[in-house]
Write a structure and sequence with these properties.
This protein is an alpha+beta fold. The chain is 31% helix and 30% strand. The protein has two domains: 201 residues, Ribosomal Protein S5, domain 2; 88 residues, PDZ domain (Pdz3 Domain, Roll), CATH 2.30.42. The longest helix has 26 residues. The termini are far apart. It comes from Mycobacterium basiliense.
Length: 332
């Protein structure tokens, strides 16, 4: 009985006591050329798309929080999970809800950047593009995110600098006439009564705009419950594949990761080794690696997985075409 007491106590500690660590490991992968819950992951509406084959899988890292001592030890001993201090994932002073909200915002931004990067690669011309409409605000119900602004009071605006210059000659309460283009709809004209803003003495339109490639069709992304910006590259490749003739994958199972900028530059991400493990387990034979992640990726590459180094969207497309033709590709 005396000998059993410490064993029972230790068992209780394993089951009850939580540790300040989060486990990271291989997460699910999603084919950006395929469907999830009956919807295309990347859906293009309003223009012709072309058949695709193979896979372009985005990859994720799974994480588990609120681990008991027993769970932490089990995960660590499995050799497939990495334990990191919780503060690295959920910084002090921020709730889990706040961190998750920020990750979801990053994911949404990555979808928008992926669309712009793909359209830029495909040489669609830039326009003053509405990124966000303040609601309530002067433009609410009149302009929408995704609209292209062509003119203000009859003055053509080809970029944000010209758009801002015209607005700086207005006053709060003034009515301005906006010529705009809307995706999958005829061009329109909106009359907007400008509001005021404490940060400026000229009229406030209530829109955030940016210079971005613009196309008359809609690109929708249907993938929920995934956070962070690291799917950008694979989203862009899916858009390019669907809008161009030929077969970008060569019927291969390709996976990858990487943030994407509006300019098409591919950025580094976290958890590269977990993502490669998830990709190989799903059946991938090729993995697209951001150049700045190459050293880490090469240190622990799953057997049977070919690493391709990419720095830009254009380089990623060229590498996929090179594989199809049997030409060499950049590697880690």
């Amino acid at each position: 009985m005396v000998a059993l007491v410490p064993i029972v106590v230790f068992g209780v500690l394993l089951a009850v006591v939580t540790v300040p660590f989060v486990s990271l490991g291989p997460g699910p992968t999603f084919d950006t050329l395929g469907e999830v819950d009956g919807q295309q992951v990347v859906q293009i509406v309003g223009t012709q798309t072309h058949p695709t084959s193979g896979h372009l899988n985005m990859t994720t890292v799974s994480q588990r929080d609120a681990l008991t001592l027993g769970e932490a030890m089990t995960l660590w001993l499995s050799g497939q999970e990495q334990l990191v201090p919780r503060d690295l994932v959920y910084p002090p002073g921020k709730s889990r809800e706040e961190v998750d909200k920020a990750n979801n915002a990053d994911f949404k931004n990555s979808e928008e950047d992926a669309e712009y990067a793909a359209l830029g690669y495909l040489k669609y011309p830039e326009a003053v593009t509405v990124a966000k409409v303040t609601d309530p605000g002067p433009s609410a119900g009149k302009l929408q995110a995704g609209d292209a602004i062509d003119a203000v009071n009859g003055a053509a605006v080809a970029n944000v600098e010209q758009f801002t210059a015209v607005l700086k000659n207005t006053k709060p309460g003034q009515v301005v006439v906006i010529d705009y283009r809307r995706k999958n709809e005829p061009a329109g004209v909106a009359q907007i009564t400008l509001g005021s803003n404490k940060d400026r003495d000229y009229g406030f339109m209530g829109v955030a705009v940016l210079d971005a490639p613009w196309a008359p069709f809609v690109v929708n992304f249907h993938l929920a419950n995934v956070g962070g910006p690291s799917a950008g590259l694979m989203f862009s490749l899916a858009v390019v594949d669907k809008l161009t003739t030929g077969d970008l994958t060569g019927s291969r199972f390709i996976a990858g990761t990487g943030t994407i900028g509006v300019d098409g530059k591919v950025g580094p991400i976290g958890g590269i080794t977990h993502k490669m493990a998830a990709a190989r387990a799903a059946g991938a034979t090729v993995f697209l690696v951001p150049a700045k992640n190459c050293y880490e990726a090469a240190s622990d590459t799953p057997s049977g997985l070919r690493l391709v180094k990419v720095e830009t969207l254009s380089q990623a497309v060229d590498a996929l075409h090179a594989m199809t033709s049997g030409a060499p590709t950049p590697s880690c």
